[in-house]
Specification:
344 residues, seven-stranded mixed beta sheet, alpha+beta, two-stranded antiparallel sheet, binds zinc ion, single chain
């Protein structure tokens, strides 16, 4: 019996030594120390032993159990330490690795351009005003010196909802509404950005929906030179300090005199190249001194007040500034196009 116990102990210790997982170790524990294990079985046979032998075997059995249990615990601690180390090595965070960027959106190129232009004019004392996109014939045309039947209305064929209500063809009605609200009681200095609609066939330079920014400054003693100064600052800030502007005579029903503004070509600086069609200049916007009749309709005395107005297309500004070759890129919302203009 003594030999049996010693063999069992040797066996168990060897198996513990060989175990390399907590699962194997647990199996050894159950096999040797469990209620149905061989050590228990041996002890069951103690009844057959003599009185002298019994305590000796009993003590030996306890020693064996103790040794096996101790070996098990030691090995368990070893395995746990190894596994912890392994886990630590595997899960180490290298803080010097570059982070994974979180994908974020950004403003649409048109939004950025409109905001840039807004900032620029706010810096010159203009306020930003908005108005409805569904507009009355009165504000869209009549209040701007374009009575029914005026030939200039044909240039702005629109989407009519009823005979007197339409999608605005320009942002000028916001100027008319603002002046109407102020009733000629104080000066006005504003820009109005927004979407406008015209019945145009879409192509690389035309869209049935586009964006406009118009500006209006009415006060005492406003002169053409003020208009030129404001436009010159705008052109230089948007396109570069080396750009020149020129004003050419033009016609708009709500301004007199009216002008088109060009900026010098950035490629040839006015000498003439293919970008500017050999002219040295690129057309940017229309402007002029507010027509006395428009001032009158808005409640200003044209003998005391004068003003200037201008209107531009942010799409055109963005196309010139960033070399966009098709206006439709702004509306088809191809993420590959838009991503190019996200500022970091
Ligand atoms: Zn040129």
């Amino acid at each position: 019996m003594k030999d049996q116990l010693q063999v069992l102990e040797k066996e168990a210790l060897q198996k513990i030594e060989d175990a390399d997982s907590l699962k194997e170790l647990q199996d050894v524990r159950v096999a040797y120390l469990g209620k149905k294990g061989p050590i228990t079985e041996v002890l069951k046979g103690m009844g057959k032993l003599s009185k002298e032998e019994r305590p000796v075997i009993g003590e030996l059995a306890n020693t064996v159990r103790g040794n096996v249990a101790e070996a098990l615990n030691r090995k368990k601690a070893d395995i746990e330490a190894v596994e912890l180390e392994k886990q630590l090595a595997e899960e180490t965070i290298d803080v010097t690795l570059p982070g994974r960027p979180v994908p974020t959106g950004g403003p649409h190129l048109l939004t950025s351009i409109v905001e840039e232009i807004e900032d620029l004019f706010i810096g010159m004392g203009f306020e930003v005003r908005e108005g409805p996109e569904v507009e009355t014939d009165y504000y869209n045309f009549e209040a701007l010196n374009l009575p029914k039947g005026h030939p200039a209305r044909d240039m702005q064929d629109s989407f009519y909802i009823t005979e007197d209500i339409l999608l605005r063809t320009h942002t000028s009605p916001v100027q008319a509404r603002t002046m109407n609200m102020i009733k000629g009681e104080r000066p006005v200095k504003m820009i109005c950005p927004g979407k406008v609609y015209r019945r145009d066939t879409d192509d690389a330079t035309h869209s049935h929906q586009f964006t406009q920014i118009e500006g209006l400054y009415v006060d005492k003693h406003v002169q053409m030179s003020d208009l030129k100064g404001v436009l010159d600052r705008f052109a230089k800030q948007m396109f570069g300090e080396d750009r020149e502007i020129r004003l050419r005579p033009s016609f708009f029903p709500f301004t007199e005199p009216s002008v088109e503004m060009d900026i010098s070509c950035k490629v040839c600086h006015g000498k003439g190249c293919s970008v500017c069609k050999k002219t040295g200049w690129i057309e940017i916007l229309g402007a002029g001194m507010v027509h006395p009749r428009v001032l009158e309709m808005a409640g200003y005395d044209p003998d005391i007040y004068s003003g200037f107005a201008f209107g531009m297309g942010p799409e055109r500004i963005a196309m010139l500034k960033y070399g966009v070759d098709d206006i439709r890129h702004f509306y088809t919302n191809d993420i590959r196009f838009l991503k190019q203009y996200h500022q970091a």
